[in-house]
Amino acid sequence: NIILSNRDVILDYDNGSYVNYNHEIYELHKISFTTPSSHNIDGQSFPMEVHLYHRSPNSGHMLIVAVFVEINDAISKSKMFFDRFSNSIPKRRGEQVTLNTPDSWNAFHTIPENKAFYIYEGSLPRKPCTEGVIWIVMEDTINCSEYFYNMIKKRSKNNIRPIQNLNHREVY
């Protein structure tokens, strides 16, 4: 299901995808996008960022995998993943579109080949900005087409939360 909320395009992802972090399973439940990126590395930001929201069914804790997105037409799994639903993004707030996808369409295609990452404990990027969220920010980028980027940007309208101070948080 693709949902256009107040400020976000959200993919309500089917059950079955998960990450194992510190011996705890976190199930993927939604994917969203920010334009421009919500994070930066050494002061560098990116045109877009993908957030893969995971929740532990046991503890309820949240883990978000963040991936920077560059805009180009290079053929890649990420570009094909995004292109699959680019024409199905709802146009009106609150609208939802259901899209049947082939088994080969997988959220793993939004993760860069190089799995190096930064990790820190932060908060949700939307109100109520709940603390205690584990953020895994991938170091390398993926790509999407300019068409897809423009569709997301048009619907999201600069939906980032300003970059927050570290406030004594450690980034590993």
First-last Cα distance:
34 Å
Structural class: mainly beta
Number of strands: 9
Order of helices and strands: EEEEEEHEEEH
Q: Average pLDDT value?
A: 92
Could you tell me the radius of gyration in angstroms? 15 Å
Beta-strand share of residues: 35-45%
Low-confidence stretches: none
Shape: globular
As a percent range, the share of helical residues equals 10-25%
Number of helices: 2
Please give a structural write-up.
This protein has 172 residues and is mostly beta strands. 10% of the residues lie in helices and 37% in strands. It contains 2 helices and 9 strands; from the N terminus they run E-E-E-E-E-E-H-E-E-E-H. The protein has helices at 77-83, 146-156; strands at residues 2-4, 9-12, 18-21, 24-34, 48-55, 62-71, 96-97, 117-123, 131-144. Strands 1, 2, 3, 4, 5, 6, 7, 8 and 9 form a 9-stranded mixed β-sheet that branches. Strand 5 and strand 6 form a beta hairpin. The mean pLDDT is 92.
